[in-house]
Amino acid sequence: MGVVEQIHAKLHEAFAPVELEVIDDSEAHRGHSGYQEGGESHFQVRIVSDAFAGQSRLARHRAVHEAIGKDIIGRIHALALDISAP
Predict the structure, then answer these.
(1) How far apart are CA 4 and CA 25, in angstroms?
(2) Quick one: average pLDDT of 58-69?
(3) Distance of alpha carbon 34 from alpha carbon 30, whole angstroms
(4) Which residue in 50, 57, 61, 72 has the most C-beta neighbors within 10 A?
């Protein structure tokens, strides 16, 4: 299972989102710091879930990082997050 699928599965399980999109944006960073051949270094995540209602932006980011887990976070270079409640 690739990193996109792993991130998707972990976020889906943790937050039961109404919308979830995980994009491997690594190719757009070819030649930049952190790029690794084969991709799976730069990601964009867009998630919408009731679980984020009433949370600050920082709390939402912390919750997403915790759900993804240190193992995956430690293997990637960049993670752009768009997190909201419906």
Answers:
(1) 10
(2) 98
(3) 9
(4) 72
